[in-house]
Design a protein that fits this description.
13-stranded antiparallel β-sheet, flat
Length: 164
């Protein structure tokens, strides 16, 4: 009987190590952190989010590892971004309240790296930019809402070298 009681108390403790959930009512969002490795569960008062780049435990300021899912109040996905050691690190997607994609890009240690794309709310591509260590690099394109190309620019180490 003692073993059964111990098991019943340990089982909920183990199963609570699956995700972190935070609700933000003023901004009408809900935030859920699903870690890549098992981490304990925390309340919104135990997690600190600094901008959209850093996420830490409030009491220890220990950085979190995992994927952060933010939701609009209508339960549609607002964003899905990977964090490592508290920094944006890996793929990141943001969505309009309608559920259509708004942004897709990649981060390394909190800065943009690789191709980043943004869309107008109607689903048409808005921008396509290439980043290297946080600086624009290569061809960047911008489109009107109707899909017509607005501008092409060429960047080198963050500096514009060839406007449209």
């Amino acid at each position: 009987m003692k073993h059964l009681l111990v098991f019943l108390f340990i089982l909920p403790a183990i199963s609570s190590n699956s995700q972190i959930e935070t609700s933000i009512t003023e901004q009408q969002t809900t935030e859920v952190v699903v870690p890549q490795k098992k981490l304990p569960r925390y309340t919104e008062h135990e997690v600190v989010t600094i901008g959209d780049t850093y996420i830490y435990l409030r009491n220890t300021m220990r950085p979190l590892n995992g994927i952060v899912y933010k939701q609009w109040t209508n339960d549609s996905l607002m964003s899905e971004c990977a964090y490592e050691q508290g920094l944006l690190n890996g793929p990141c997607k943001r969505f309009y309240r309608s559920g259509k994609i708004k942004f897709e890009g990649n981060y390394v240690n909190g800065i943009k790296n690789g191709i980043c794309r943004e869309w107008h709310e109607n689903g048409q591509l808005s921008t396509e930019e290439s980043y290297l260590k946080g600086k624009k690099e290569g061809l960047c394109r911008l489109w009107f809402e109707d899909g017509e190309l607005f501008e092409e620019e060429l960047f080198k180490e963050g500096n514009l070298i060839a406007p449209n």
